[in-house]
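ok trying this again, last paste got cut off
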Amino acid sequence: MRGTNQSGISEFLLLGLSRQPQQQQLLFLLFLIMYLVTVLGNLLIILAISTDSRLHTPMYFFLSNLSLVDICFSSTTVPKMLANHVLGTQTISFSGCLTQMYFLFMFVDMDNFLLAVMAYDRFVAICHPLHYTTKMTHQLCALLVAGSWVIANLNVLLHTLLMARLSFCADNAIPHFFCDVTPLLKLSCSDTHLNELVILTEGALIMVTPFVCILASYVHITCAVLRVPSSRGRWKALSTCGSHLAVVSLFYGTIIAVYFNPSSSHSAEKDTAATVLYTVVTPVLNPFIYSLRNRDLKGALRRVVGRRAFSV
């Protein structure tokens, strides 16, 4: 990736979320706490799943991958923002900006694909319980995750190369705490219609296809649950899906609001609020959402924490 673009701009300024010193201090502390909770919470889930043989099932395999992706997801943006605050700088190089954008949206795509794979897993478990072990084999699970990584990288590479061809003339200030597509397109003095067209077509296809798969899975799950004779059985079946639905709603709601509207309808304030939700808030909530209503995972987490406390 080149260090500068066609117009010679070598760096951008990340203006952050606020220009008020007191608010900056508060936001620094808030983001630091949320980042630490994100890393610790998701690491605990990965550790609990890897050390408890009872959790070596497809559902928890996908959940551990989602936790890993969430750690990487937050790590592409929050540490840079925290470092800029400590160092008193706002700059990021042009190549660094494109690199951050590449990894950020690669992990967005991975979140997207993994949520769809987890919905399919719940569909098979609830609608075809007798065939679950024969359908959700280790080979299929590994193939689904590996395929997700390949498609995510190819998709993001396309958007990054399209961004790298643009020229940036005078203004290099990004009203955000990371390099996002929308503000970068607004700063460009090149024709950005091709970029926007690819986002609204190919990018939308990458996001919508898994979303449709999730909706289809839950339509079938709902129909299957309604056929369960006892209310207790229906509640048990739905409780395994409630956490997943909560994460899906938050993730897709903010993504659609930010990236799949015409650029003329965007405002910096609304975009920033929405991106904070999916880049910072969603990864920090996932460990709580998935563990609070999951008895097996809570038990595994207690054993991991208890073992660490005892060893200390």
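PB: full thing came through this time. The longest strand covers residues 11-14.
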